[in-house]
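Each record in this resource describes a single protein on a pair of labelled lines. An example record follows, reproduced without changes.
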Amino acid sequence: MNIKNIFLPKKGFRVQTMNFSESHRLFFLFIIGIVGGTFLFNMLGKELAGKIGIYSEYMISGFNMTTIENINPMDFFMFCIRKYCYQSSIIILLITLLKSKSMSGILCIVKGVNISFLVGSATISFGVGGILIYIMSIFPHYFFYVPLFIWSIYLANIIREIFNHKRSAKGILKACIIEFAFIIGTSVFEAYGNLPIMISMFT
């Protein structure tokens, strides 16, 4: 098997269709990231768990578990919008500016590694119940976040094709509106769906 073919889309692939085989390729790389991340996490040991934490993204932003019950949902909603706008922008910039067809695959691997580290950290910190805690920490907003992640890759490929004069800019506004709709939806479900769940679990 040619390793290059794993990362690069098959010849003739068009981002307009985002065909079945391309989805399988990205999912396969995502699984590779999870497996590789789990192996790496086990090698690094328990000391890594305390540095990650199930709520590391909130701790970094000043939202820590000791004050989670005092978090204002609207403030957290605005924080989520900024967070997902930033994450989506990074995805779009990396794929567009680096002009690498393998970047979408690399991003899926990184996302898989990230999830495996969080699951490993939760398991070490809370035992088998840590898996349940992690699942609850991504419910229900990941029903919007996963499509947001996929759509960001799709949008980045559209923009790259426009820059390379392989397609017209027609439809880009609609694609951007859909991207922002996913961001809003993910933020709403995290701030008003997931946050109450986390408050009930940790207070």
